[in-house]
Amino acid sequence: AQSVAQPEDQVNVAEGNPLTVKCTYSVSGNPYLFWYVQYPNRGLQFLLKYITGDNLVKGSYGFEAEFNKSQTSFHLKKPSALVSDSALYFCAVTDNNNDMRFGAGTRLTVKP
Amino acid sequence: DTAVSQTPKYLVTQMGNDKSIKCEQNLGHDTMYWYKQDSKKFLKIMFSYNNKELIINETVPNRFSPKSPDKAHLNLHINSLELGDSAVYFCASSQGVRTGELFFGEGSRLTVL
Q: Hey, are the CB atoms on B107 and A43 less than 8 Å from each other?
C-alpha cells in the first residue's frame, strides 16, 4: 500500500527565511502527491499537487514543491516564510488505489 | 457558501450511546470520505463513497456505519460509543478518486465520557 513519511515533527524558521518541509513517499504505481495545510480547529486545505509533468509544482500562498523520483521525495518549500504560515502541514499520496494516505504531519512555526 | 459542511461541530456524549454526524457537499463532486484525526493529529481514512457506492472500507469497527443517500451527502453513524472513539472526524469530497484534491469540512469533535 502507498505511504508517505514526514521525518520532522517540528520545523522552526525565522520570518523572511526560506522554509522546507520534507516528505518521502512509497508507492507501487505512479505517485500522485499532495500537500495540505491545517490551521488550528480547521479542516485541511489543499496547497498543491503533482500528477504528471514538471517536477516543480507551484501552489497557493507562494508555496512550491519539487517531485524527485530518484529520491522518492516531494519536499514543500517557500522562499520567504511568513508568521502566518505557522500551521500543521500534511503530505499525502495516492497511486492506483482509490484512497489518499496522509503523513503524520509537520508543525511549522515561523518566528518574527 | 460552505463547500463541505458537517454537523454537529461539537458532540459530547456518554459511553454506550449512539450518535450521528452529517456531511453535505455542494461542489458537485462524485466522491466523499470520512477521516478520523486523533489527538496526535494523525489522519486516517475510514470510508470512501463514489456516486453513493462504498469503495473504501478500512479496518474500522462495525459500530461505524456510513450512509450515502445521494452523492452530495455522506453521514456517519456510530453505535455503542467507546472512549477511544473520541477524535475529530473530517468529511471530505473530491472530483475523481486518485488525482483530485480533497476538500475538507471543518471537522466534528466527538468527546466520549
A: yes
